[in-house]
Design brief:
The chain crosses the membrane at residues 12-32. With 179 residues, this protein is mainly α. The chain has helices at 2-30, 49-54, 64-69, 73-79, 119-122, 130-138, 140-143, 157-169.
């Protein structure tokens, strides 16, 4: 009779272990934690570098003058809030991580006082035109491969046009939009 009690006790013990294992596996499947490929948080308006590289250059984008005709500087100011983490927009404002953007339209490239530009940006040359700024806002690393700018780019053409309209308003003598 003692061996029968021992067998029942062992059966109950191993049954409890199996039941515990089934419960653990079931809850692991139901409440599986979600893990990202890379730790961290995505910034609004940014995209992974692989997605930027894979995106077609300008897939059936309306011409810039057409986009600028519909541009809203108020929306551009809201869209440019992400830029304010690295740039200042005030007249005579300081250079932050990036240069001050007051009067950037029509200004020579890499010419903001008090900011150390990368060689990649210096090599662009010329002035910041609306076309050049549109390309820069869309894909900075595509225009200057060695730039220190970490922003991946704004892919929506109308948002870029709104930002350009906002940048136009940041000047004592605004440069007119191209026709």
């Amino acid at each position: 009779m003692a061996s029968l009690d021992f067998n029942r006790t062992m059966l109950a013990f191993f049954g409890a272990l199996v039941f515990y294992g089934v419960i653990v596996e079931f809850t692991s499947l139901v409440f599986m934690p979600w893990r990202t490929e890379r730790p961290g948080y995505a910034l609004p308006g940014s995209a992974p570098a692989a997605a930027v590289a894979a995106a077609p250059a300008a897939a059936k984008e309306p011409p810039l003058p057409e986009l600028l005709a519909k541009a809203d500087a108020g929306k551009g100011a809201a869209d440019a809030k992400i830029c304010a983490t690295c740039h200042s927009f005030e007249k005579g404002g300081p250079a932050k991580i990036g240069p001050n953007l007051w009067g950037v339209v029509g200004r020579p490239v890499a010419s903001a006082p008090g900011f150390a530009y990368s060689d990649a940006v210096k090599s662009l040359g010329g002035d910041w035109t609306y076309d050049k700024l549109n390309g820069w806002i869309g894909n900075p690393k595509g225009m200057a491969a060695g730039t220190k700018m970490a922003f991946a780019g704004e892919k929506e053409p109308q948002k870029r046009a709104d930002i350009l309209a906002y940048l136009q308003s940041l000047s004592d003598s605004p440069v007119p939009f191209p026709k």
